[in-house]
Amino acid sequence: MTERIREIAFDTETTGFNFDQDDRVIELGAVEMINHIPTGRTFRRLINPARSVPEVVTKITGIREEDLIGKPFFDDPDVVDAFLEFIGDATIVAHNAKFDRGFLNMELTRCGRAIIPEERWVDTVTIARQRFPGAPASLDALCKRFDISLESRTFHGALLDSQLLAAVYLELLGGRARAFSFEEAIGEAGAARPPARQRPQPLGPALTEEEAAAHAAFIAGLGPNAIWNAAAKP
């Protein structure tokens, strides 16, 4: 039986770049993938960072400080517990994984939870640089390379970027052709499925007697040397 690979495309939005100082996560976004294909299950939370949101962050993400008033803190069960339940033991796929891993593990540590170890992460920037040395490896650049629409990306958002990342990840692994698999046609013992069941009696001709007679008359009118007559001989 084919192995079932579960992965999570993941992204964060934050108040800045420094998880080891006073910057915090303001949004989590995640997309479930099975065998590298999104399943439709997603996760998104806006998070109160308990600090101000710089104007430059609002310009990039569209998230304003007032949008986060009343939102849960990261240690709220609706955030941390719900997120950990969503990801389970899956591999985490992120673009520039070091950044997202640093922020996620900082938040997990602050609320007394175990961190997600580095070996559980896949970095699509690393994959892109290996496949396309010297080429731009930003998420935008890869979307353009693979003709993935950025029309809805007015701002950077954790869930939207996770969805784009899932599409980019599939392309980096070999493209949309991976979605077309013949595995279902193979049985557990490795044998091909049996052919479709045949009808016990063949269907009768669909032509009426009048249509058959008209066709015969047309063929006769082509003359004895017509190619049709030669092909029709046994």
Provide structural commentary.
By secondary structure, this protein is an alpha/beta fold. It has a single domain (6-185), classed as 2-Layer Sandwich (Nucleotidyltransferase, domain 5), CATH 3.30.420.10. The protein is built from eight helices and five strands; from the N terminus they run βββααβαβααααα. It has helices spanning 55-61, 80-87, 97-110, 124-131, 139-145, 158-172, 209-220, 227-232, and strands spanning 6-14, 25-34, 37-46, 91-94, 121-123. Strands 3-2-1-4-5 form a five-stranded mixed sheet, sandwiched between helices. Helix 4 (124-131) packs parallel to helix 6. The longest helix is centred in the last third of the chain and has 15 residues, at 158-172. The chain starts with 5 loop residues before the first strand and ends with a helix.
Task: Please outline what is shown here.
By secondary structure, the chain is of the alpha/beta class. The protein has helices at 55-61, 80-87, 97-110, 124-131, 139-145, 158-172, 209-220, 227-232, and strands spanning 6-14, 25-34, 37-46, 91-94, 121-123. It has one domain: Nucleotidyltransferase, domain 5, CATH 3.30.420.10.
Main attributes of the structure:
234 residues; alpha/beta; Nucleotidyltransferase, domain 5; five-stranded mixed beta sheet
Widest β-sheet, arrangement of strands: 3-2-1-4-5
Q: From the coordinates shown, what is the CATH architecture?
A: 2-Layer Sandwich
Count the E strands. 5
Helix-strand topology string: EEEHHEHEHHHHH
Helix content: 25-40%
Show unreliable segments.
180-197
